[in-house]
Predict the 3D structure of the following.
Amino acid sequence: MIYIKTEEEIEIQRESSLLVGKTLAEVAKYVAPGIKTIELDAIAEAFIKDHGAVPGFKGYGGFPGSLCISVNDQVVHGIPGNQVLQEGDIVSIDCGVLKNGFYGDSAYTFAVGEISEELQLLLERTKASLYLGIEQAVAGNRTGDIGNAIQRYTEGFGYGVVRELVGHGVGRKLHEKPEVPNYGRRGSGVKLKENMTLAIEPMINLGSRGVKQEADGWTIRTIDGKPSAHFEHDVAIRKGKADILSTFSYIEEILNKK
Ligand code: MG
Ligand code: MG
């Protein structure tokens, strides 16, 4: 069952998605060499609660954190802990909030201090692939059109597209149908209808696409040990052009000041 949202529900969801962007911006102020990932998690949790919302990930399936924090070869679902960020790392920070009954879910991958050009390009291209996917997220297209756009662009650079984890519908539940793979054939998959709301989230590896799950039952890592990037937006499907509910503008305001 795929939920089609009312306009009113989409506006409530937008508020949740924007709060995720604001939370990630708050966290962005502190992303620097020397900070522990558990400290970033505490900053996010306090910020979310101060804004009348509940951390969307905490307790979800037993997940212990308010953020998923995934460093370097960790792809997604990293558990905040005593890991200290180091100069030259990249860190994917994925945040969910629940407010007024609806979830927002968005992620951004940050550079820690100065990073190599190779990693800078991985971040830029992964983010660009998200927007290419979003361009295809319009009524009448199919989920495969989104995945194909992401895959074609990123594989063109020799990157690996993670297949085991995918985007998803989002709304009253954090994960709703349909699945939104980051790969696929044009014209395949679920047909998109107006007022579906999707979380689109390419996970792109510098090396090959293979991933494995750690013994902690959560953390996903690349098999070859090479770094991976992840960016995620929530969108509402419309005719002609998707309506992006989340935003990176608060985050990038902070990054531009750094
Ligand atoms: Mg997410
Ligand atoms: Mg998601």
Summary: The chain has one domain: 7-257. The longest strand covers residues 90-99.
